[in-house]
Amino acid sequence: MNKVVSNADDAIQDIQDGAVLMLGGFGLCGIPENCIAALVRKGVKGLTCISNNAGVDDFGLGLLLKTRQIKKMMSSYVGENAEFERQLLAGELEVDLIPQGTLATRIQMAGMGIPAFFTPAGYGTEVAEGKEVRVFDGKPHLMELALHADFAIVKAWKGDTMGNLVFRKTTRNFSTSMARAGQITIAEVEELVQPGELDPDNIHVPGIYVHRIFQGGNYEKRIERRTVKI
User: Fold this and answer.
1) What is the DSSP secondary structure assignment for residue 129, as one 8-state letter?
2) Is residue 140 very low, low, confident or very high in pLDDT (cuts 50, 70, 90)?
3) Whole-angstrom Cα distance, residue 126 to residue 171?
4) Domains in the chain, number
5) Phi, then psi, of 34 in degrees rounded to 5
6) How far is CA 42 from the centre of its chain?
């Protein structure tokens, strides 16, 4: 089945106000840059965004924060975005900070059809408020629910017209799980190939999970925080 759409604007055309979105990537690595730009152009508002991070002020999800299109952020790291901090402190943005392992597992469970799981992470902190606690082997654990989304939007290195995806290195951290957890999964890829051109042993997300795919372009691939000298 050919799942190709012409561009990012076509791929996100049915995302409406109030939608719950998962956006792949790790930091600024492997984020769906073209789809984020299309969401800014569309002007859709009231979004709940589930992502490892909130981007930076002028890139990634920071662009949607700047235009006030995000109502709620569900993330594990948000430390590089001054506008995010301003909106949070001003009470303009709902924020659910989730331990990174818990966030990843909640997404994985949604893709696997498992409704909940128990983890010790967050017990005894604000994260535990309102959650069921059970003791396993003498240690308290919180019950965490699987995390679903109306749309999962990911960026892969390569993909074929049937939606099979191949990611590179760190970009796999959240994107492969998110692609399985959305009601509709949209993938932008650096290189779009024909069926049979991808090694089946190297496919990270089978096409059965992907509903729309297109070849993106003009990727900036920014480095969020350089830690070595050139």
Assistant:
1) T
2) very high
3) 30
4) 1
5) -65, -40
6) 19
Burial of 215 (0-12, 13-18, 19+ CB in 10 A): middle
Cβ burial, residue 183 (10 Å; 0-12/13-18/19+): exposed
- In angstroms, the CA 9 to CA 28 distance is 21
Chain position carrying tokens 């506008």 = 83
Q: Which domain holds residue 36?
A: 8-115+146-215
Residue 89 domain-assigned (yes or no): yes
Is 37 a member of any domain?
A: yes
Q: Could you tell me what percent of the chain has a pLDDT over 90?
A: 86
Does residue 127 belong to any structural domain of this protein?
no
Residue where the block lists tokens 């949607």: 64
The single-letter DSSP state of residue 26 is B
User: Cα Rg for the chain, rounded, in angstroms?
Assistant: 18
3-state secondary structure of 198: coil
- Rounded to two decimals, what is the model's pTM? 0.93
- Distance CA(93)–CA(71), nearest Å, equals 6
